[in-house]
Amino acid sequence: MSAASVERPHGDRPLIAEANRIMDRLPGYRVEIIGGKHIVSPPPDGPHGEALTDLMLPFVAAGLHGTESRLVQGIGLWLPDGAEDYAIPDLSLVDADYQDHYVENNCYDPVCFRLVLEVTSSNYRNDLRDKVAAYAEAKIPVYVIVDRKHQRLLVLTDPTGSEYKNHRPHAPGEIVTLPDSIGGRVTLDVKPILTVAQPKAN
What we know:
This protein is α+β, with helices and mostly antiparallel strands. Helix content is 25%, strand content 31%. The protein is built from four helices and 13 strands. The strands form four sheets. The protein has a six-stranded mixed β-sheet. A three-stranded mixed β-sheet has the order 5-4-7, with no helix packed on it. A two-stranded antiparallel sheet has the order 1-2. Helix 2 (46-61) packs antiparallel against helix 4. The longest helix has 16 residues, at 46-61. The chain is globular. The N and C termini lie far apart (50 Å). The model is unreliable at 1-10 (pLDDT under 50).
């Protein structure tokens, strides 16, 4: 168990202070700091939220939201590659004692994260590029991306440096089994996930 850091005043953390000001001005937006830059994401649409709910169900069925691990939406992940960098994955599978790994600014040490998952939005390049490097550098063992833009589900494993050694795209019709390292057996049916995640054309 690691000791939590003392939280510093945001005045001493100019990027975090500005991120918090942006969130105050734009309620519902998600503000992250990746590579020393602010990333501002719009509020998710309904299909995004539906997909997250559907994705949680197989994890819960596998017993991964219990005494050993917890599923948490929108939890802050402190990133090691910048003095103030942090990300907020859509969904995270963390060790049950994650609160003992608090760092600062509602963020937790990457050591307690088993998996992070993103459902892409309008700024999908961030999930497919910047966050791949950030999560790999943080040594997050499994990164799952529901890529709504390209209609595929990506599973990235074995982080090394700023990339993942294994980068598998899965198309509708495939059934994906996630690595046992997450603590249980979870399979994802790609087609229904992508179907529910797709916004209807107006």
